[in-house]
Design a protein that fits this description.
The structure holds two protein chains of two kinds.
Chain A lengths: L2 E2 L8 E10 L2 E7 L3 H7 L4 E4 L6 E3 L11 E4 L6 E5 L9 E5 L13 H4 L8 H6 L3 H15 L14 E13 L3 H12 L4 E4 L15 E2 L2 E2 H13 L4 E4 L2 E7 L3 E7 L12 E13 L3 E3 L12 E3 H11 L1 E2 L3 E6 L5 H9 L3 E7 L7 H8 L4 E3 L1 E8 L3 E8 L8 E4 L2 E5 L2 E3 L2 H5 L4 E4 L4 E4 L14 E3 L9 H18 L12 E2 L18 H4 L3 E3 L4 E2 H9 L5 H8 L12 H12 L3 H4 L13 H5 L16 H6 L2 E6 L2 E7 L7 H14 L2 E4 L4 E6 L3 H8 L12 E7 L5 E9 L4 E6 L3 H16 L6 E4 L4 E7 L3 H6 L16 E6 L2 E6 L8 E7 L3 H12 L5 E2 L2 H10 L34 H4 L10 E8 L10 E7 L5 E13 L4 E9 L8 E5 L5 E7 L14
Parallel strand pairs in A: 2-8, 9-10, 9-16, 10-13, 16-30, 18-26, 20-21, 20-26, 21-22, 36-46
Antiparallel strand pairs in A: 1-19, 2-3, 4-5, 6-7, 6-8, 11-12, 11-31, 14-15, 15-16, 17-27, 23-24, 24-25, 28-29, 32-33, 34-35, 36-42, 37-40, 37-41, 38-39, 39-40, 42-45, 43-44, 44-45, 47-50, 47-52, 48-49, 49-50, 51-52
Helix pairs in contact in A: 5-6, 5-11, 7-8, 8-9, 13-15, 19-24
Chain B lengths: L11 E3 L3 E4 L3 E7 L5 H11 L9 E4 L2 E7 L2 E7 L3 H11 L6 E4 L4 E7 L3 H8 L14 E6 L2 E9 L2 E7 L3 H11 L11
Antiparallel strand pairs in B: 1-2, 2-8, 3-6, 3-7, 4-5, 5-6, 8-11, 9-10, 10-11
Helix pairs in contact in B: 1-2
């Protein structure tokens, strides 16, 4: 059983115990524990069931590479699935549950799959469930989805807070092991601005667990000295619990800081995503030990040799009393020595190399440990725990020679540099035959905009495995990065480091080398996805020869661990099956993030009330307090209508608003309309080109409705232009067009007509704008000012500056409703005050604020088009009968030539008409008018469509506008619009102007 | 001008950085030839401040001039002075090709104060806020989370941020969120 040792545990504080639960069981750990070390200290080796066969699985590793120990953490609003126990720091009250088991971890029904594994090889699901096709969607997939999967999806809203941080550094060093520390120090000494990040809670990395000395002192002392030197450098920032998640173009780097995962509910953000720009990035990300492939290598109790030693040294946890070490390299001997020195039994070291190990092997033997060279593990004995191991010759086929009882198997298949961050942005790898590893190719680094390398590697991430080499490499990398980032060129002496001399590794990809199919089918490559040696071999036989194809076919290297343990072993097996060298097979693509980061950290602050900006007019609060039923219009919220009392339904409110406006007085908050000032001696010339009609002839004090088209002739915006003085125009745009039309103007002014004397400014938000509409509009305004606002003083389509008390306003006599109407612009800061005055002055006329729906209905009753309803990016003004607004006199305007193209002048284009339903009902929006026959797809031919449709309370019937083939020539004809329910509505083609065609009402 | 109110009526939040809406300020968008002697003189005459260089802001008492683009300045004066200033500019630049527009009511302006003020901006804007990279006298027009914003420092511990009036509440909520105690990063200390 695994347990806490009496001594050891450099990272834990035994004076501070912490309680936590696992599957509801109350357990105890210490401050400084990871969830994994605390579970192991409580003999909780079994942590989950495998993905496909539901085999019992235990903790394998001690860091980010862990494939098995994924847990559901927290509950309700703190719930999060797939959290790695090995990288989860223990805190008081932590609550974890194992995943992928039913009904319980100890007894799992799905484990029957392991008995059926012969029938569930790679590609099983693809092959089995492809026929008959319809069954996949309705039967197979729902079933498979239920049985598969790791953690549960959260149900509740996340209670925690997340944020971003933008940061800029000359050199960023990723990884706070000895290499990272030294690289950062070297860079810091060169005077550049440095950020050093470490994904765990501790500096120093592996070197503190392993044997070695630096400058004749133990590694821990040297690390302490280096840390204090770094702390004294004001140009070096150091962050723990921060992972380099991804490297992107132009030195962009994501740092994922787990600010308060280890002390939740402290009012701190949970995660902070650092969005970093770095001139140079040094990845000192270390290396990950590889498992060995032998039958039964997935039993709980089979672990990485380095992890066994980490748990003992860092957390004072022994995985079991009797540890068998199995290796193809010298490094794993350290585990045997550590366990032995901890007073535990190491019955055997199985070294697959016939030549055996070097200095460390001698040390192990001197401690009385039995070492067998040229041997392999034939199979592992046990079930939910390892109970023993059967030995065989590595050279043979797996005939057992003897059995040795044990409860831990510490395996090491060599080390793979963590090259992920190097690779994210295009760094290439080379295969190092001597060390049996892929390591970064220094000649093919990720490059920046100038073709310069912007990522370099330090230490074991670079393939340096001896402490002396690591230290030298790190100092060089730090100095080179600093120099490339513009630092002083400084060469200091690198520390003198020594670690035991290692005998060469021997690549062992399968154990024993001639393992038969029964053994291969129990030799796991990928624990997380249940991929075995036999699966990869099957994929190769079935033609999935590309490593990317084999990955997808077998699922090797997928899911949350992205094959940190399995990739190299898998592609070695694939290479062997394809009879080609490993570099020819290559690796799959390394993509960010290095380990999964929370979705919430990506969203950052953008959640809840600040999910998106909400634009508010100065009268927004009044609307809110007075029953506004909101409609989103871009990022604005505009009242669709106002519910006079809470029970009033929307249709009733809209009718009430329209009737009251037409009969007496309505108010519209029109502040969102775009307002652009265009000024300069060439302003008239400029607007003549932007609008289809003539603007330069407009007299100061007057207004003109204008249309704007793009170069392709399509109608994009409309609005009223007011000439302020000889040089100055104020152009109203649609609400959505304010920014885009401003940009459109700047585009033409800056890129094409840069020598014209015209300036534009967007003053949309400077003004609150209120439309005062209805027969009593003038009477109301007259109560608020002594100035002359009579029909003579401000005729239709004129404007005038008028003071309403202390409010200086500009009054535009324009109408989008067909009624007597003034649009009044006041400073936004006085918008609410002006609105309140209007409400008071209009009270005697039953003043009725109205929303966008009443606005729409009233404009439709008048046959006014709406950009976005009557236009959809394919409609030209001529389609809408707006020929009167297209100047015939001008040589040119934007869209003119396009509108002369053959297709644009085709008499068969659909044109705007009014539609009056025969039965008075309301046509469905977007409904098509059908024609005789069918098209080549067998669909009914169409001859028109509805663009706007409303119930008109004024006419007490449904009215609509639509684009109809030859429409204007077919007045009075009845055409048919099928509805979705199969019935048909008949509508008569009429003029689009339903109300007051002579314009008598707006002209009073 | 008694009826004029700012968007948030001086809302305040005391976090690890103090956030407050600063009320109304006179602002004039001034476009023209920034190299012309008349422009330099006109701006200096109305504000007392020198014409700023690229990405800079100059202050003189309660007035300031900020560089916005190669042909645009933002002239800031007390809110009550804006019409007078506008008229003075119009007069001084008569005959020149220029545009001067009152945008005082189109804006919201916030003050961030405290030793960690830089940090609050660094959480929201893609700008290097380290003291070597950004200091009083400079201005940045940039993006603050999802909106356009500009900011400058009035001292090493105080920043002013300006954005559009319609998004004042969003801007305040953003700044408040970033300034909440517990979120201290400590990188600019």
């Amino acid at each position: 059983m695994s347990t806490r040792l009496a001594a050891g545990g450099r990272l834990i504080n035994k004076a501070r115990a912490m309680e936590f639960t696992f599957n509801g069981k109350r357990l105890r750990g210490f401050e400084g524990d990871t969830l994994a070390s605390a579970l192991l200290a409580n003999d909780q080796m079994l942590v989950g069931r495998s993905f496909k066969y539901h085999r019992p699985r235990g903790i394998v590793a001690s860091g980010a590479e862990e494939p098995n120990a994924l847990v559901n953490m927290g509950r309700d609003e703190t719930f999060e699935p797939n959290q790695r126990a090995t990288t989860t720091e223990l805190f008081d009250g932590l609550r974890a549950e194992s995943q992928n088991h039913w009904p319980s971890l100890e007894f799992d029904v799905g484990a029957i799959n392991t008995k059926l594994s012969r029938f569930l090889p790679a590609g099983f699901y693809y092959k089995m469930f492809i026929h008959p096709r319809p069954l996949w969607k309705h039967v197979y997939e729902p079933f498979i989805r239920r049985s598969a999967g790791l953690g549960k999806a959260p149900r509740d809203r996340d209670q925690d807070k997340y944020e971003h941080l933008y940061a800029f550094y000359d050199v960023v060093v990723i990884g706070g092991g000895i290499a990272g520390l030294l690289a950062a120090k070297a860079a810091g000494e060169a005077g550049v601005k440095v950020l050093l990040m470490e994904q765990t809670a501790h500096w120093g990395g592996r070197a503190l667990v392993d044997s070695g000395t630096v400058n004749q002192m133990p590694v821990d002392k040297f690390v302490d000295e280096t840390l204090s030197a770094l702390a004294d450098m004001s140009n070096v920032t150091m962050r723990l619990r921060m992972m380099g998640a991804g490297v992107y173009d132009h030195g962009y780097l994501l740092g994922y800081e787990r600010v308060s995962d280890h002390k939740p509910r402290q009012n701190a953000p949970r995660h902070r995503l650092w969005r970093i720009r770095a001139k140079q990035i040094v990845t000192a990300t270390g290396a990950i030990e590889r498992p060995l492939s032998f039958a039964g290598n997935d039993f709980p109790g089979v672990m990485l040799a380095s992890a066994v030693r980490d748990y003992a040294v860092n957390y004072g946890v022994s995985i079991g009393d009797r540890t068998v070490v199995v290796t193809n390299n010298d490094d794993a001997y350290q585990t045997a020595i550590v366990m032995k020195n901890a007073g535990l039994d190491v019955p055997l070291i199985v070294d697959a190399r016939s030549s055996g190990g070097g200095a460390l092997a001698d040390e192990a033997r001197a401690l009385g440990i039995r070492v067998e060279t040229g041997k392999a593990i034939a199979k592992v004995k046990g079930g939910k725990r390892v109970t023993g191991v059967a030995l065989c010759s590595q050279a043979g086929e797996g005939t057992p020679l003897e059995e040795v009882a044990c409860d831990v198997i510490a395996m090491s298949g060599g080390w793979s540099p963590v090259v992920h961050l190097w690779s994210h942005c295009g760094g290439k790898l080379i295969w190092d035959d001597a060390q049996a590893m892929f390591r970064p190719d220094p000649d093919k680094a990720p490059t920046g905009a100038q073709g310069e390398a912007f990522v370099s590697v330090a230490g074991s991430a670079n393939g340096a495995m001896d402490l002396g080499e690591i230290v030298l490499d790190a100092v060089n990398a730090g100095q080179a990065a600093a120099k490339a980032a513009g630092g002083k060129s400084k060469r200091s002496k690198s520390p003198d480091a020594h670690s035991p001399k290692m005998a060469p590794i021997e690549p062992i990809w399968l154990m024993p080398q001639g393992a038969n199919i029964k053994l291969r089918a129990k030799s796991w490559l990928d624990y997380q996805n249940d991929v075995k040696v036999s699966d990869v071999q099957l994929a190769a036989r079935e033609g999935f020869e590309s490593v990317e194809h084999a990955k997808r076919y077998t699922t090797l290297g997928m899911a949350t661990d992205q094959g940190k343990l399995s990739n190299i072993n898998g592609l070695a097996i694939l290479s062997d099956a394809l009879n080609q060298p490993i570099p020819q097979t290559g690796t799959t693509t390394f993509r960010p993030p290095y380990t999964p980061i929370s979705m919430a950290s990506i969203a950052g602050e953008a959640r809840g009330p600040i999910f998106q900006p909400l634009r508010k007019t100065p009268m927004h609060d009044w609307h809110e307090e007075n029953g506004a039923y909101w409609e989103p219009v871009g990022q604005w919220r505009r009242p669709y209508c106002f519910r006079k009392h809470p029970g009033e339904d929307i249709e009733t409110a809209v009718k009430r608003e329209i009737n009251q406006t037409r009969q007496s007085l309505g108010l519209l908050d029109a502040s969102t309309l775009g307002k652009l000032i265009v000024k300069g001696p060439d302003a008239g010339k400029f607007l003549d080109l932007l609008y289809t009609n003539m603007m330069s002839t407009l007299k100061p004090g007057r207004c003109r409705y204008g249309l704007m088209c793009n170069e392709n002739g399509f109608l994009t915006d409309d609005g009223v232009v007011a000439r302020i003085d000889e040089d100055t125009f104020l152009c109203h745009t649609t609400t959505g067009g304010a920014d885009s039309i401003h940009a459109h103007m700047e585009d033409w002014l800056q890129c094409e007509w840069w020598d014209w004397k015209v300036y534009a400014a967007n003053v949309t938000e400077q003004y609150a704008q209120v439309a005062v509409v209805g027969p009593n509009a003038r009477k109301t305004l007259e109560k608020l000012t002594n100035e002359d606002i009579s029909a003579e003083a401000i005729p239709f389509m004129a404007w005038k500056d008028v003071a309403f008390g202390d409010i200086n306003a500009r009054v535009y006599r324009i109408s989008f409703s067909g009624e007597l109407s003034y649009e009044i612009a006041v400073p936004a800061s006085q918008g609410r005050a002006f609105w309140d005055q209007l409400l008071e002055a209009g009270a005697e006329f039953g003043v009725t604020p109205y929303g966008t729906e009443a606005l729409h209905v009233m404009r439709a009753e008048k046959g006014f088009i709406m950009i976005g309803d009557e236009t959809d990016g394919t409609v030209i003004p001529q389609d809408l009968g707006l020929d009167w607004a297209i100047s015939k006199k001008k040589d040119d305007f934007l869209g003119k030539r396009a509108q002369e193209r053959k297709h644009m002048i085709d008499p068969n284009r659909w044109k705007l008409v009014g539609l009056e339903t025969v039965d008075g009902s309301v046509l469905p929006d977007g409904a098509y008018c059908t024609a005789e026959g069918t098209n080549k797809n067998g669909q009914r031919n169409v001859q028109g469509r509805v663009t706007s449709t409303y119930y008109s309370p004024t006419l007490e019937r449904g009215i609509a506008m639509g684009l109809v083939h030859n429409g204007p020539d077919r007045m009075g004809e009845v055409i048919e619009f099928p509805k979705v329910d199969g019935t048909v509505i008949q509508a008569k083609i009429v003029s689009p102007v339903f109300y007051d065609p002579e314009g008598e009402k707006q002209n009073v | 001008m008694s009826s004029a109110v700012s968007a948030l009526k001086g809302a305040k939040y005391e976090g690890y950085v103090k956030v407050e809406e600063l009320g109304l300020r006179g602002m004039i968008t001034l476009r023209g030839d920034l190299n012309s002697a008349k422009m330099k003189k006109a701006v200096q005459d109305v504000t007392g401040a020198k014409l700023p260089n690229q990405r800079e802001i100059t202050h003189e008492g309660d007035k300031a001039v900020a560089w916005m683009s190669p042909d645009e300045l933002l002239v800031m004066v007390p809110y009550t002075d804006v019409h007078e200033t506008l008229a003075a500019l119009e007069k001084a630049l008569k005959g020149q090709h220029f545009l001067a527009a009152n945008v005082s009511d189109a804006r919201a302006i916030f003050g961030l104060s405290g030793p960690a003020a830089r940090e609050v901006i660094a959480k929201l804007c893609p700008v290097d806020m380290a003291s070597g990279a950004f200091a009083p006298g400079q201005i940045r027009r940039t993006r603050m989370a999802q909106i356009a914003a500009a900011f400058w420092m009035t001292s090493d511990t105080r920043i002013e941020v300006v954005c559009f009036r319609s998004v004042a509440q969003y801007a305040f909520d953003l700044l408040k969120d970033a300034a909440e105690p517990g979120g201290e990063v400590g990188i600019f200390a």
